[in-house]
Structures are given as C-alpha cells and as structure tokens.
Amino acid sequence: MLYWEDFSVGQVFEGGPRPVTKEEIIAFAKRFDPQPFHIDEEAASRSIYGGLIASGWHTIGMAMRMLVDAVMSRYAAIPAPGVDEARWKKPVRPGDTLFLRVEILELIPSRSKPDRGVVRSRVTLNNQKGEEVLTLMPVNLYRRRPAAKA
Amino acid sequence: MLYWEDFSVGQVFEGGPRPVTKEEIIAFAKRFDPQPFHIDEEAASRSIYGGLIASGWHTIGMAMRMLVDAVMSRYAAIPAPGVDEARWKKPVRPGDTLFLRVEILELIPSRSKPDRGVVRSRVTLNNQKGEEVLTLMPVNLYRRRPAAKA
Fold it and tell me: Comparing C-alpha atoms, which of A62, A105, A55 is closest to residue A84?
C-alpha cells in the first residue's frame, strides 16, 4: 500500500483505453440524466450534435473508474472532500475510446488531521483523436505513512 | 417549453424525496468508484464511517436526476459546459432520503451565441435530518426564447 508521502509533484499517471458504447450511454442517462440528447437516438440525430452524446456525469464516472484503477486502488485513499472544477470540452459519443491522464499538482499536509494529506491534481480525458473531452480538478485525501514504532 | 428568459435571480426549485438504497450504492460504485467503503459492507463497517457510504459521484448523479426532473426537463436545456465546484459535506448512507434545492444565482446572456444564455445556480442536497450532504455550483446553458416573426 502506498501513502500520501509516495506522491510527488509533477508525477503523471495514465489509464485506458476505455471504449464507450451506445448502450451504456443510454443506460446511465436513463437513471441519472434523462435529457433527449443522451437517451433518444432520433431526437439526438436532429440536434446540433447529430447523434447521441454521453451525459457529462457519465464521462466523469468513466474517468473516476480509470482514476481508481490507476491510482486510488494502489494508495491509501480517504473519501474526498470535492472537486474544484469540471469542464466538458467536447462531446463523448458511442464508439469513442477514452484515455486518462492525471498530473499531480500539489501536496498539502492536513493541519487539523496529521494522519492525512491533500493531493490536488489535474485529470484529463482524451478521445481516440487526441481531443480533450474532460478536465477535472479533484481535491483528494490520502493517509500518511504510519510512523515506525519507536 | 420555458426558456432562459423565464428564469429569475433568486428563484428556487425543489425536488425529492429521493430514497437511497444499499443495492444502488453498491451497483453504482462497482461500475464507477470501486473503493472498499462504497462496495464492501464488511470493510466499510471497520472504517471510520461505520458502514457503507455512497460514492460522491453517485450522490451527484442523484442530484442531477432530481435537477432534470425539477428544472431541466421543463426548460430548453443545452448540454452544459461544466461545474465550478462540488463539495461532499456529509456521507450519504443506505436508508437516507435526499431533498434537492436549486437557487438561481446569475443569468448571463451569451455574447458569442445570441440564441442561448448561461444560468449559474447553487444546488444543495439535504438528507432527512436536514444536514447538507452536497453543494454543487453548475454552469448551465439554456436556449433564449425565439424572437416572434416580424
């Protein structure tokens, strides 16, 4: 298990490829974001997008899964306080393939809780054409390495 | 259908109640956020949370669904550019019931695209005890009312 101390500023993690299917775009959006351009192929084909696009929350969900697989599952993660900014840059469509990039920006020891530290990072998802489709600035918490017994 | 012009600053929308089940907490997290405190009852019961807690992205997904039902489905919504800030204030647990509140903060006509306008709002989710569990500051786009033919 890795700890907060094991991150370094500038460190980069990568994930993917993650293919995106029409079925999962529709299934996610029916539960969480039932707008016509996410769930109705016919309505979506008449929109300016010319076809179905993924809910932005589905795109973030896919990024989160890649982030857990690439980083958080290997480090002692604590539930996170939040996200400073999310931007959906381009539509994500059925047949796209997504790639994750995580760059560690800042490491801040917690003042109030000495057993943990904050990690700020920039998360980006790119599609198979190299276009940025998502940027996310999460605020994550990780446990600090337990002190060796004296 | 309602348009950007039909919002007013200070307007409040409400949604809920939305019950939260253990089954959906686990199902969401297995797909998008498979950390032990979201998917493993036994590990979660040994954590400082004393039991399973929902993925923050699942909590936002539930808020989004309530937002679509209460607001976006009645207005001419366009896919949104992003979110300025999200904060998970308290854990969301199996058996909780969530309530949505949306307050319209700012209405900004688009300079580059005269057919649309930006709506900034503060979205909060409260649980059945009145505790705030989520705050979200989305940036949404809505169509402007088409001009009457001259």
Answer: A105
